[in-house]
Amino acid sequence: MSSPSSRANEARHAVASRLRDMRLDAGITGRELAARCSWSESKSSRIEHAKTPPSDADIRAWCAACGVPDQAGDLIAANRQADAAYVEWKRLQRTGLKRLQESGVPLYEQTRQFHVYASNVVPGFFQTPGYATALLSSIAQFRGTPDDVSEAVTARMVRSHVIREGEHRFAVLVEESVLRYRIGDPEVMAAQLGYLLSVMALPAISLGIIPFTASRQAWPLETFTIFDRLRVHVDTLAASITETQPSEVALYLKAFGNMQKAAAYGGDARSLITKAIDELGD
């Protein structure tokens, strides 16, 4: 796994390469592009070689000069996230888990439409205190973070108020495997699965379960959350990745839509959850 600094460097070079390819596709030289943009030829060279990061205005001018102004949005988003897209969990969690839970509150509160796909654990805002305690304890132990699990669990429960308050809507997909993974003891799991049954009745929530046996167009992916169709957070073992490029967000929305077709809803989803509860004692 590459480091955040190397990933950021790769992202900057990717933007530079896309700008260079755009100029070549347009059939113009660096000198001609500079003239069209009213800046020096050396500036064009520095941008193309990732020595000088372009501003939003630079990217808009570059795209316009190459006759593809519609591509500016994606490139601007890619350029902005070059340093921020890949953030090590170690850095996010260096002061413990509580602050990380609290840091997400503004984004959760301002988001109106959530698309959530969970392939490994129950989504955070659906977690019970017992389940969250078991999960965050494992994370703290694995990462060697300061032990503030109880405070972090409280913060996570407070953050979860968005499922009951405000004008928020949640489209949630959970793999059936999530119902089976034992996070905590059977009693904790039974309470968690029972809580899933209760949140399904909330008017703001659409919860689908993707059965093991479902015929599917999209394979299981890393857990991700889409906020208002504008940004995606993807959780990996090593890092939290943020995508804001419209084309990348559209890709995750497409995957979500494909997986929705394989999901069970309503009574069928409840049957999958109750079956998992019944088999906890096996």
Automatic annotation (TrEMBL):
InterPro entries referenced in this protein's UniProt entry, alphabetically: Cro/C1-type_HTH, DUF5753, Lambda_DNA-bd_dom_sf
Superkingdom of the organism of origin: Bacteria
Any one Gene Ontology molecular-function term assigned to this protein's record: DNA binding
A Pfam cross-reference name: HTH_31
SUPFAM superfamilies: lambda repressor-like DNA-binding domains (SSF47413)
Gene3D superfamilies, sorted: lambda repressor-like DNA-binding domains
Domain called HTH cro/C1-type: residue spans: 18-73
Name assigned to this protein: Helix-turn-helix domain-containing protein
Organism for this UniProt entry: Streptomyces mesophilus
